[in-house]
Each structure stands twice: as C-alpha cells, then as structure tokens.
Design goal:
Rossmann fold, ATP hydrolysis activity, 619 residues, 7-stranded parallel sheet
Length: 619
C-alpha cells in the first residue's frame, strides 16, 4: 500500500490532546478530505484558501486546528469567524463549544443582528477568545470599539461566496481592513467567483490552497426520503418504519460506536434480528457479522460510517440515517450501500429541527430533492398487524397438524357450552400473550418551530422595476394563514438602492425576529417598497428596523397611510431627495426612533454579486 492510500486519522494530524478527546467523544472516526488537508496547514500558521462544497466538514477543518492554538489564559479575542447568516454563526459557535468541551475557561460568543446588545456587551467585557458573527453586527461592534481585535491571531471567512451573494462583500472587506496586521487568515468557499479570488489575493499572504472535488452522485435506483423528527422518540419512529416497510437487509447508521451497541440492543429487545458493527469490534467478528447478514441470519446492521465504507451486501434494500451525517460526502457513501447493481433501494434520513441546514446542504450537493415522509399512524400499523395475525391463522390451518387441538377444542366447547367464536378469541388471546396486538395512537406533538412545509414561502414577488404600479394601503392576507391580521408598511429603500425582496426579508427576520412565514407580500418601487407584516408588530420591533441598514442604506419603516401620495411619488421618483435622511412622503405614522449608525446585517450589495434567484430569500 502506498503512502497515498493510507487514510489519515485525527491522531496523526497534530491536534491538541483535549481536542482529540472531544473528537472521539463526538464520534468522529476519520477526518474528511477538507479536514485532512487543511488542518496541518492551519496548525503550521499558513494562510489558507479552501474550496469545498458546503456540508463537507469545513467547520471542523478550521475550528479544530485554530482552537488548538488558543491561549485560554488570555481573555482577549484571538479568533474572529465571519459567517453570512445568524443560523450559521450559531452553528459554528456551538461547534467550537463542542470541540472545546475539555478545555477549561474557554469562551466563544456568536454575535448577530436581532440579538440583544446588552447580552453581547456583557460577554465581550468579560472576555471571549473566539467571536463568530455576521458582517453587519461585527462592523457595528468594531465601530463602537466594543469588539477589540488588538490580540487577534486568526480570522476565518466561512462561506465567502454566500456572503458575496447576500451583498456582504463590502462589509467583509471593511472588516479585513480594520484588523491588525500579522494575523493568520483562512477563506472557505464552495465556489470561487472572481470577486472572492480578488479578496483572497488582496488579503491572504501566500496562502496554501486546498480544493476538494466531492463525490455527490447518488444512484437513480435509490428512493430518498426524510422524516422531520417531531413528536415521538426516534426509536419509536424507527420501530414503526421497520414494521410497516417490508425490507430484506438493512443498515442503520449512527454517529458513535456506543450508539451502535445501544440501538442494536434495543432493536433486538423489540424482536428484530440485529447486530452492531463498529471499529471497536475485532476484525474477525466484523467479518462474521457481515457474513451473517449476507446469509440472512440477521436482517439489520447498526453501524458507524467508517466500518460500513466499501460494505457490499446485495440484499441490503434499506439504509436508515438514524443520526444525520456530519457531511454530505458521508451521506452519499451511506446510501450507496443500497440500490447496487441495478437493484432498487430506499434511503431514509432522520432530520432534527437543528439539522435542517444539513438536509438542504445534502440536497444541494446531490442535486436531488429528498421527499418528506410521514410516519405510519397507529391505525396503519394496527391494520397491518391484524392482517398478519389473520395470515398466521390461515398458515397454521393450512400447514400444521391440528387433529389433537381440534379434539381438545371440541371437548372444551361441549363441556362448557361456550360459543365457538368466543373460544377462538380466547385461544387467539393466549397466542398473543401479554404483548398487546394493537398499538395505541400517541398524541404526536408538533414541533413548535417546524414549518408547515419546507417549500412554504410567503407571497412575494421579484419583478422588474415598475414606476407606475398602483400603491394600495390594503394588506394582502397570508396564503397559508388568511385569518392573521396584516398591516401594510412602507420602507424607504427601493430599486434605486439595489434592493430585492430577499434583502427586506433578511433585515426583518434578523432584526425584528419575525419568522419569514409571517412576512407577506412585498412590492418594490423605484425609491421605496411596501411590505405586509403582522398588524400587532411591536413598537420595539419597529424601533429595531428603523436602526437597520438595507443594502447599505439607513432606512425607516412606517405604516402606509397615504397611498395617493406614494402613487404620486412612484410616478415622479426624481422628486425624492437624493441620499441622506428621507421622510416617508405619504408614509403616514412613524413608529420607533431612528438613530444614525444602526447596525443591521444587510450590507451594501456589490455590483459583482450574482443576481438573486426569483423568490429566494436571504437568511
């Protein structure tokens, strides 16, 4: 075996011992390609330009080595990570916390629009070694001098192309220019458009380059589905799926070695022929276990990623991702255990509320939409159980020697004068034993924050600029919640400012903490826009929005009261004063103070940013 064929381990990469222990505790068995190539460069202090698809393990690729170099005795900010959305900022921050679980006195802080300044300021004053933030809020703290970067050792741009798409690239460059010289810089991006390459050439010092070409194709013979974890325990959900789906062989993937043993034991206790397969099991026993599923002596393997790589068992008809994988490449390898040699297969993915981002990454990477599935109901299961019980009776009548039992039943019936049907029911009850035949329907608790549908979007259009589209003061009802009382607002930015619906949605969702499903119809005019929002929007939320930048413009939002004045303004856009503070001509009541220098997370849109797709919103 050549050196190129040897798979690196986390132990071989030079990471600090506390981090290696955390990695093992989290169930990471082998570094992904981007991790294996990036970690040594970052540990050596090189600048890095990394290109790999989202979902390939980039967070660990920079977090693990840079965390290894953090000095916890120093409370100043040593690492700054820029992320395009608050969701990613939170996710990266939580990843740092997980990797640092064995490092005392380590502190990480996510900062983003919509989060209380007081909370952020308190933690910044106490001292945090790592800050993960969105560009707008990071800029704001730098301007206020509440985020001090004198001790900065490293800066990471995560998902740089996404920051470009969302219009943050000017903000990113401003931040880079306001950081001290001499720090290490890493830039990660799924694509490398010219603008990102230009930023890298300007701000990275002789960087090492890592480019990962990820296998993303999945067999067309594999039917892919996902279940949104909600209401019942994953084990109970898995049991329902096993009972209702006829399967030959099955592999269930979990993240940790301990989980393989635990889940295999629980499934065995529920009557399934099941065994665990993980790296702690000897090679001989692993081979015997694989041989047993090939021969049909067991039907289910519960495995981790590494030991199942290359596993080729023809009879595997189903793959269940009980734990969602850490990266998209692992997903492709997992489901590739079924649908082989032209056979059909089924892959099922369990997705928790906080794992929806990974689901989207998998869909993007594989270029396939994954169908949402509903769990079988108790009624579905009971119907099948009754049918199977009846079939057992039929099979017993057809295939077994019943002479003695016929004589016994006839004798009992004669002696006790029992109705034959009642006698049969008693015998059926005896055969079933203490285990109830029928399943009681649990009241499934709907996840409070779960979207009604993944493709659910409010009614909003992205249209070419229109100067004479009539303005009306009447808000449109939400398509999926028509009973909600809506109010039409006017926002003092328009096409002239480069604004698109996604910019407005992102500002409102981030700063006012309004869920996107409650943001209604948006119309954009030359120098203003209208948006339908819940009528009970608080004064505090309006106040936050009036301190927000949209596409680099300080704006104000107010209830739309005088549609005629706005129609006049739409017909004569040149009448609006250029730049500076703008009063809402005909905009009616102003709610909330407007202060200069507000720091939302909407940066000025670069002219080089690609055109936003119709209906897509910025996070």
């Amino acid at each position: 075996m050549s050196d190129a064929d040897i798979q690196p381990t986390f132990d071989s990469l030079g990471l600090a011992a506390p981090i290696l222990k955390a990695v093992a505790d989290l169930g990471y068995e082998q570094p992904s390609a981007i991790q294996a190539q990036s970690i040594p460069y970052l540990l050596e202090g090189h600048d890095l330009l990394g290109q790999a698809q989202t979902g390939t393990g980039k967070t660990a690729a920079f977090a693990l080595p840079l965390l290894s170099r953090i000095d916890v005795t120093n409370k100043s900010t040593q690492l700054l990570v820029l992320a395009p959305t608050r969701e990613l900022a939170i996710q990266v921050s939580e990843a740092f916390q997980s990797y640092a679980r064995n490092i005392p006195d380590f502190h990480v802080l996510p900062i983003y629009g919509g989060m209380s300044y007081d909370t952020q300021l308190r933690q910044l004053r106490r001292g945090v070694q790592v800050v993960v933030g969105t560009p707008g809020r990071v800029m704001d703290h730098i301007r206020r001098k509440t985020l001090k970067l004198d001790g900065l050792q490293a800066l990471v741009l995560d998902e740089a192309d996404e920051m470009l798409r969302m219009g943050f690239i000017d903000d990113v460059e401003w931040i880079l220019e306001h950081t001290p010289d001499g720090h290490q810089t890493a830039l990660f991006s799924a694509t490398m458009p010219p603008v990102i390459r230009k930023v890298a050439n300007k701000h990275l010092n002789n960087p090492k380059e890592v480019k990962i070409l990820t296998k993303t194709s999945t067999a067309t013979t594999i039917s892919q589905k996902y279940w949104q974890v909600s209401g019942i325990h994953k084990l109970d959900a898995l049991t329902r799926i096993l009972e209702m789906n006829e399967h030959d062989g099955m592999i269930i993937f979990v993240r940790t070695k301990a989980a393989t043993v635990e889940l295999a034991e629980k499934l065995t206790a529920r009557g399934h022929a099941c065994e665990a397969l993980n790296g702690d099991i000897s090679q001989n026993l692993r081979e015997r276990t694989v041989d047993r599923i090939k021969k049909g002596q067991i039907d289910i393997l519960v495995a981790t990623d590494v030991v199942a790589r290359g596993l080729d068992v023809d009879r595997v008809s189903h793959v269940v991702n009980y734990d969602i994988p850490y990266d998209t490449e692992s997903y492709v390898h997992r489901i590739g255990r079924t649908g082989r040699a032209g056979r059909s297969g089924t892959a099922i993915l369990f997705v928790g509320h906080r794992e929806r981002r990974m689901l989207q990454q998998i869909e993007r990477a594989t270029r396939q939409a994954i169908e949402r599935m509903q769990l079988p109901t108790a009624s579905d299961i009971n119907e099948q159980r009754v049918a199977r019980f009846k079939q057992r009776i039929t099979d017993t009548i057809d295939n077994e020697d019943l002479d003695f039992f016929i004589e016994l039943a006839a004798s009992y019936q004669k002696e006790n004068d029992v109705d034959p049907v009642k006698l049969g029911a008693a015998l059926a009850h005896m055969a079933q034993g203490k285990t109830p035949l029928l399943l009681k329907e649990l009241e499934v608790r709907q996840e409070r924050r779960e979207r009604r549908d993944r493709d659910d979007r409010p009614d909003r259009a992205e249209r070419a600029p229109r100067r004479h589209r009539p303005v009306t003061a009447d808000a449109m009802p939400l398509k999926d919640n028509p009973s909600m009382d809506m109010q039409r607002y006017v926002v003092q930015v328009g096409y002239r400012d480069g604004v698109k619906p996604g910019n407005i949605v992102g500002a409102i969702a981030n700063e006012a903490d309004v869920e996107s499903r409650y943001i209604g119809h948006i119309e954009i005019y030359e120098d203003f826009a209208t948006v339908d929002l819940p009528a009970d929007l608080s004064e505090q939320a309006i106040g936050k929005l009036n301190k927000t930048r949209i596409c680099g413009q300080r704006t104000e939002i107010s209830v739309l009261k005088d549609a005629d004045a706005l129609n006049e303004r739409a017909s004569n856009p040149s009448r609006r004063p250029a730049g500076g503070n703008r009063r809402p001509a005909g905009g009616g009541e102003r709610r909330g103070d407007r202060r200069p220098g507000g720091g939302g997370d909407r940066g000025r849109r670069s002219n080089s940013a690609p055109r936003e797709r119709r209906g897509k919103r910025s996070e």
